[in-house]
Design brief:
The structure is a single chain. By secondary structure, the protein is mostly helical. It has a domain of 64 residues. Helix content is 76%, strand content 0%. The protein is built from 26 helices and no strands.
Length: 590
Amino acid sequence: MAPLDWLIVVLYLAFALGVGLLFRNRAGRDVTQYFLSGRNLPWWILGTSIVATMFAADTPLAVTGLVANHGISGLWYLWTFAPAHLMATFFFARLWRRAGVLTDVELVELRYSGRPARVLRGFRAVWEGVVLNCIVMGWVILAMVKIMGALVNLDAVTQQLGIAHVVDGRWFGILVCLVVSVAYTVMSGFWGVVVTDFFQFFLSMAGAIVLAVVAVGDVGGLAELKLQLARQYGAAADGYFRFMPSAEGPSLPLMAFLALIGVNWWATRDAGGTSYMVQRMLAARDERHSFLGVLWFCFVHYVLRPWPWVLVGLVSLVAFPDLADKEMGYPMAIVEFLPVGLLGLMVASMVAAFMSTIDTLINWGSSLVVNDLYRRFLRTDAADRHYVRIAQLCVVVLMTAGGVTAYAMQSIRGAWELFFGMTVGIGGVYVMRWWWWRVNAWSEIAAWVATAVVYLGLHVALPGIDFGWHLIVTAAVSTVCWVTVALVTPPTDEDVLVAFFERVRPNAPWWGPIALRSRVGPAPGGWSDVTGWLAGLVFIYAGMFGVGKLILNGWWSGVPYLAAAMVAGGVIVRSIRARDHPAHGGAEPA
């Protein structure tokens, strides 16, 4: 790191603090401004903010490791979330905006009734907002510690400050980033989060693209990269370039692929839209902006974002063939290939990726603690400015808890497995609560309990169980449990269901008894949403494969996929226009 590199990083940190100062007055007015930016975000900001949040410091390392270990087919661990995210887009983005809640957990008492709903809301505020949130923050911070260890040496700084006996250089760098993240998030709330996310995404993407171009160029170009891989790995080298699992060469295990394709897209909580994605939907200017924002996220996240990391992962196989931890190929490529100036840009982009995730997690987590625990159960009648102050305190406390969690963690993969195991079985009930009136609070409680019990049981009884079987068994048992509970327990109070139906207007055939009592009908949608979702699948996967084929194999190999994506995109545009046309009910109200 030369002085120019440090200057670039410092300027970026100063920019982030400047955003916090710029929006501090607006965010401090009330909790809606602090947590949802006054519900006035356009689609292009909220969609880009979701992408930036999912562009964490650990993501490039994870992609590099997947490509190095399984080839491009290893990315199906990530690609199988596309149907879930598209489901959230076409079926639920508008419903969330209509609900008008402040957090995703607040929906619990809008949708369910009685003591079970109150218990579930309080439980989820703590479990998701604090416990699971700290696990995610922990692995994001731990990944950044690994990156810091490879990119910069701050031990001399800690020695000059006289704190080397307290904290090493890597953790000192992380603490600086965390302090800046907390500072602008405390000052500006969600305004600071989304505005910095917007710029952080472009900085992070610029860094990733620059690294990919320089790294591929330094090994002689793509053609030379393929030759070197062939010389080093023989016939198995072709496996690294296959998009689908194969029995030859490095590949994603077939059982894992089948489980991901068959179960993952509906069993994970992403299918119904949760956490920070829902926070953006709720902050949208209106229903249309909510829908378009999440659709924009899906396009950028899947079609454009992964390919610079894939290229670096392939280069790392040649440049660092004996690397034990394949994920470290990404930060090592940064150090190996980038000159002064570009190195600073890349470090700043990794800091931006890290901060864009952390700021969202602490703001979203504090929204659950304040809105769904403190204001709901402890202090129900305070002024808005009081809740804003409590939220600012929660931001600091959550960040501290996340740092402690990271310090205690042994591995990023272990944290991933723990988080995934504790949440993999709840997607079905999160989807069906919008579509089936019989789902009640006990159903969600049963799904959470069954998922935890099955996860722990499998790891105790069958510690070596394959990931694919783990996914299938957990999802199946959890689904049977929550459906059974929904049928044998008393339904939600009918007045609550009618009020929910009239407010959200879900378009599903399983609301029949409630729809008959309602004064309004379902919103436009129905089969057009199904058509849009199917077209969205073609649009995302064909676009993703087309861009990848174009980069790796040349123009003509990517054209058929891109043509299919364009046709699917046209279907989506027509469905959007038809839905907003006055003859079909007009543009839906905000």
